[in-house]
Target: Ribosome modulation factor 2
Amino acid sequence: MKRQKRDKLGRAHSNGYQAGLGGKTKEQCPYQNIDAKSQWLGGWRDAISDRNLGLFK
Model:
């Protein structure tokens, strides 16, 4: 059985989260599409929040 890929917006959120954990700035968002960019920034904000709470170093 083939595995389904995650939808593009879910992937954008995940990529933004990883970017936030990696210390990238929000200006480094690679997406131009407004929906994908919004999801990426949401993931980025979640990661920054988690880092500030001490969940990641």
DSSP finds two helices and no strands in the chain. Residues 9-18+34-57 form one domain.
